Fold:
Amino acid sequence: MKKSRDIAALVLVSIFLGLILSIQFKTISKSVGEGILPTQRAQQLAIELKKAQSEKEAQTNRIEELENKIEQYEKGGVEDNLYAENLYNDAMKYRMLAGYVDLNGEGIVLEINDPPADVQYGEGYSIIDELDLILQVVSVLNAAEAEAISINDQRYTAFTEIVRAGNHIEINGVSKSSPIIIKAIGNPDTLESALAIKWGIVWQLRNYGYIVNLTQDRNITIPKYSKIKTFIYANPVEEIVN
Amino acid sequence: MKNSNPKIILTLFSILIGVLIATQMRMKVESIAPVTLKSIQDIKVEINSTNNEIIELEKLIKQREDELAIIENISMGDQNIVDILKEDIKLNKVISGRSPLEGPGIRITMFDNMNSEIVGFDIEDALIHDVDILNIINDLKIAGAEAISINNQRVVSTSEIKCGGPVIRINGRSIGTPFVIKAIGDPKVLMASVNAPGTYGDTLKSVYLMGFEPEIQDKVTIPAYSGSYSYTYAKPVGEGD
Structure:
């Protein structure tokens, strides 16, 4: 009698142990990918990421090199020709307006950190859920005559969209996540006071619990727009008056 | 003797399993600790986006190489620096919104909720705000709009859209309702981005009962940015100090 009870207990415990182990393995293989241990996978991915990043860097360098060469040729070509020189200045101006030139100057840096996770309700909310706040910041900066704006080092252009993609946001098609760092070149005092005005956008952000840092900076660099914009649907209207 | 035998075995095996699991756990915990499933997901996303950037950069390299080839061949070919610069100006004028464009697209008319009964507790909920327009514009950009205007003011990178009392200010000018937003792009995609159920535009229309009337148009004309613009604070990197 006693022996059979022992065996029964043993069987029960074994079944229980087996169940737990199998559940554990199932969950891990489902969420990570079958047959691969998460550490190996992570290492693999890290290597892949490093490779992609160094490739990107190489390309950026190559572009810089090409652009320098082009600039040299252009400058050399227009040197002894006043008409061409004016054209060159004009071309530079429109390149700046289109966002194809790195700019630097004085301005402000606004950093928006997500609120700390709420102990009571578990995971906190994020700026990713309230993208229109970023749109409003940009609009306020433009109202304060910002000359160039970047969001997490992506130049804000006339085509820049801000869209949620899962746990990230995409700006100019590049994934970014919190914290959001918005830089703007312009009159630092005007920009700062426009953002920090009472009941203004920074007040609103802080009211929602975001941790906001607003600082003036004498030397801000805003990168150029790195995509080629092609128009498929739009055609220029022939200008009659010029 | 016979009675105590299974107990001993049981104890021994329990200890063995315990030790085995413990060593196993220790070994794994050490190497797994910094790796959570979320971080793997994050890395995956980052790789994807870096790869997309690389594709874009490749296009840019190709374009610059072509440009360089053209410039290098100036002396031999019939192109000269003036033509190249003129071409460059024309292109960047279009991209920066300094030349009028036309093409297929949509036209959206927005006006405040004119019903005497309003939705919500506040009269503010019956009015169109800057946020509403910003969201619609963002949705249109996501849908690939190539040019956007609001009441014939071109939306460029420096356009502000701000409520100022009863009007909305854009490009330094005041505009009032009704707001007419025009966009050039794939008309079907643009339409879907503001009209499909669940979009911001649809919510405005069916929940807040705002006037929101998008319509597909074969030809939309969008004017150039009309203000003049000069940089006082920003300087190109590498020039001056």
About this structure: The first strand of chain A starts at residue 103 and ends at 113. Chain A touches chain B through 101 residues (CB under 8 Å).
